[in-house]
Specification:
Length: about 230
């Protein structure tokens, strides 16, 4: 399958060792690793934040050369920070992701993520979980080709973890490449592929079951599978 995203020579001094990466359309990929392993640095390098080395191409377009209006349609990035200091209402926040007004798309996302009752509430007055859903709706609004999401499942109850995983799978089924940083290793079976990071290096790139059973998993996390739980190595 022809890759949708092709990255070469990605690196951040002291944070991410040089690597190449490609993502095909229609797939969901998880990035895992212990704290400080380089997960967020990889995501931000792909989003071309913090002046990383290397280059990223999506659908044959160089991300560094995209105009802001085009970038939103090509690349959607959700940072780990959820703070909101701008008193914008939820409906208008979601609409920010669009190149032109599309009330139908906004309403559809508000319904899908159960934000319609909150549509006229200021985003800075939402709970953390509600804010995640509103920010995700903004990223999804223009239907970007690639979704780069930093911990989108954190601070969510089980219903919303499962619901957002389905929303992301729906985006992948429509042809997007979805890349997600993840801490809950019990969710890996929802993904097609797992990139495992450690000390700024990519130490594994495999299917979820292969990743967990591989020797580098225990070396990276210092735990190993023990039935449905984990045990210290």
């Amino acid at each position: 399958m022809t890759p949708l995203l092709v990255a070469t020579g990605l690196a951040m001094s002291g944070r991410l060792a040089p690597l190449d990466l490609s993502l095909p359309p229609g797939t969901m990929t998880a990035i895992i690793g212990p704290n400080g392993s380089g997960k967020t640095s990889l995501l931000r390098s792909l989003a071309r934040i913090d002046r990383p080395d290397g280059s990223v191409w999506i659908g044959g377009e160089n991300v560094d050369r995209l105009l802001p209006t085009r970038r939103a349609a090509v690349l959607g990035f959700l940072p780990a920070a959820r703070e909101m200091i701008w008193p914008i209402v939820v409906r208008d926040l979601v609409a920010l992701g669009l190149q032109r007004p599309d009330s139908g798309r906004v309403d559809a996302l508000l319904e899908e993520l159960e934000l319609a009752p909150l549509a006229d509430r200021q985003a800075d007055r939402l709970s953390t979980g509600e804010r995640v859903r509103a920010l995700l709706a903004r990223v999804l609004a223009p239907r970007p080709s690639v979704l780069l999401l930093d911990e989108p499942l954190s601070n969510l109850d089980p219903y919303w973890v499962m619901t957002i995983l389905q929303v992301l799978r729906d985006a992948a089924d429509e042809g997007a490449a979805v890349l997600v940083t993840l801490h809950d290793l019990h969710l890996l079976d929802a993904f097609d592929r797992v990139l495992m990071m450690n000390r700024g290096l990519m130490v594994s790139d495999a299917a979820p079951d292969v990743t967990i059973q591989g020797s580098s998993f225990a070396d990276t996390f210092r735990v190993e599978p023990n039935g449905p739980r984990w045990r210290l190595r």
